[in-house]
Design brief:
Number of strands: 22
Number of helices: 1
Helix content: under 10%
Order of helices and strands: HEEEEEEEEEEEEEEEEEEEEEE
Length: about 300
């Protein structure tokens, strides 16, 4: 019996060395935050927690598999920058995804409201997707940071490296472990949430009898702070609302040939126009813009 102790002990020590090497070697690849289509975001700042999506591996225009995570299943979480506060509010199992060929290919979470996915504009041939850090209860999930900097950290760790019970929201741990995520076997990225606002645009038609009716499915083009034109369409009440916009200059435009007879911004009547430009700053009221057109069909 004694002669068996040394070989067994040696094997145990060897296994421990291999396990230590696996932990200290760390996780290869990279992750980063982005928009739903995978386009790059300047300075990692977002106007709303609902706008932050997770991406990994190759960035824009990079070759497939460049900086890709190893294939397999992963969990993710959102914390403050030092990891002491957990901001994710759903079970760990609901924050799960799959990597194949170095890119995110599926959201596999369960046990809570789902996390939305986007079609990644880079490497669509691999089925690459992005995953929203907040679930569909957003903006309730994830929690807003109490810190003035509004800074956050997103973590990704292999399912096999997670320490704790994935059916729970939080898994307290210590010694380089944060809510079940071990720093040495995880990838992280920081981002911030800046001041944001909602833009409301309304369309109404003036009838011959002086009454107003809503303009349904009416297109408004919103040019954002970096010059990108985003089309939006009114609902059955003649209204469209766009949230998560950050501070800066914007232009709202409709059909340039529309017969606009009224333009009202936050209750103040302005000279009629098919275009309205404004600059939004923190702590200013959210803009509500009403365009009133003649109903030419009724004329």
């Amino acid at each position: 019996m004694k002669r068996c102790v040394r070989p067994l002990l040696a094997l145990a020590l060897l296994a421990g060395v291999h396990n230590l090497e696996a932990q200290t070697k760390g996780l290869t690849g990279a992750i980063f935050t982005t928009l739903s289509d995978g386009s790059a975001v300047n300075a990692n700042q977002y106007g709303s927690s609902c706008a932050v999506y997770l991406d990994g591996g190759p960035g824009p225009h990079a070759p497939a598999k460049a900086a890709g995570l190893p294939d397999g299943d992963y969990y993710f979480q959102v914390t403050n920058p030092n990891g002491s506060l957990l901001f994710s509010t759903d079970p760990v199992s609901n924050r799960q995804m799959r990597v194949a060929n170095g890119v995110f290919v599926a959201y596999t979470g369960f046990g809570g409201p789902p996390h939305l996915t986007g079609s990644n504009q880079d490497h669509p041939e691999l089925g690459a997707i992005t995953i929203s850090l907040a679930n569909t209860t957003c903006p309730s999930d994830f929690l807003l940071s109490p810190e003035a900097s509004r800074a956050y950290k997103v973590w990704v760790t292999p399912v096999a490296s997670f320490l704790g019970n994935p059916s729970l929201v939080d898994n307290p741990c210590s010694g380089g472990c944060f809510h079940g995520f071990v720093a040495s076997t995880s990838k992280t990225d920081n981002f911030t949430l800046g001041p944001s606002f909602c833009l409301t645009v309304q369309k109404q038609f003036l009838e011959n009898d002086g009454s107003l009716i809503p303009g349904v499915a009416w297109e408004f083009d919103v040019t954002d702070t970096v010059g990108v034109v985003n089309p939006h369409f009114t609902d059955d009440s003649g209204l469209v609302k766009v949230c998560g916009l950050t501070a800066g200059a914007y232009t709202v435009a409709e059909d340039p040939y529309a017969s606009v007879v009224g333009l009202v911004v936050n209750g103040v009547s302005l000279p009629p126009s098919t275009i309205y430009s404004f600059t939004w700053k923190d702590k200013q009221p959210d803009p509500v813009i009403l365009f009133v057109n003649l109903d030419l069909i009724a004329q």
